[in-house]
Amino acid sequence: MDWFELTAVAIALAMVFCNVREIHWGWPLAIVSSVMYVKVFADAKLYGDAGLNVFYAAVGCWGWYQWLRGHRADGSALHVAKLSRRGLALLVLACAVAWPATGWFLATYTNTDVPWWDGFTTGLSVVAQFLLGRKFIENWLLWAVVNTVSIALYAYKGLYPTVGLYVVLLVMSFVGFAAWRAKLPR
Question: pTM value?
Answer without folding.
Answer: 0.89
